[in-house]
Amino acid sequence: MSGLVAPRSAWPEDFPAVVIHSTVKIRNAHPAYASAKAGDAAAAVVLVRDLLNTKAVALLREIIGGRPAILAAVTAIEKSGFNAIPDAMAHDLGKRLGLPVDAGELRQINKVAHTRATGWHRLVTPPLFGGKVEQGQNYVLVDDHVGLGGTLANMRGYIEAGGGKVIAMTTLTESRDASKISLYPETLNMLRLKHGKELETFWQENTGYAFDCLTEVEAGYLFRQSSADAIRGCLAEAAEEASSSGLSAIPF
Among 24, 85, 127, 135, which is least packed, fewest CB within 10 Å? Predict the structure, then answer.
């Protein structure tokens, strides 16, 4: 097993969908987006102020249901710089929901360059997290975008391995159908039937977790591949390419 093991938890059947505030088209057209993504905190505040959705905030409030919780933003270094959007979102949501924001204790500790990356690149360069988890505390995870869902799944796994509990997730935007982050049992069954136990064993030996910890989009991505051998080949190729770019990758 590689040193890039990110703990994950299997998904409970009632885990809520990621609460989404806007669309990629609207976000990309906003004049503050590029600067916010590259680390401009003032631009991020403007972007978030304009795009946070009151209905989405109300839905998030309903999911939390009055439970005490901490808002924890994904802090990531992108190709263009520090992504200031999740932190701005967390602080704005904290004011709207009356919840505290994690004061930088939880953070992503590696650079993965996932923005506009392929699915294979995302799978071989898992985000890793560090920092203090408040044991017994509820957490709401905040990020700017959900695609395959691996970043949120890994952050959830880190928090729950440390004694916390993730009760909700929210992002500014999503890739198609990515808001349903928890794995459907039928998707898991189809993946196992198509590609066999050997591939799941291979996966677990390299990542540290079994298929039941995949997100719905990740599992669907693997299911759509022609064979287990094709999956292994694509993972190995993506890992080699990421390593050659100076990124830490799982050596599949």
Answer: 135
Q: Are 54 and 31 in contact (CB under 8 A)?
A: no
Spatial distance between the Cα atoms of 105 and 133, rounded to a whole number of angstroms? 8
Which CATH code of 3.30.1330, 3.40.50, 3.30.9, 1.10.10 fits the domain covering 19-174?
Answer: 3.40.50
Tell me the C-alpha distance between 45 and 68, whole Å: 25
Q: Residue 215, SS3?
A: coil
∠ at Cα 114 (185, 210), nearest 5°?
30
Is this model's pTM higher than 0.70 or not?
Answer: yes
Domain ranges of the chain: 19-174, 185-244
**Segment 84-121, tens digit of pLDDT:** 999 999 999 999 999 999 988 899 999 888 878 899 99
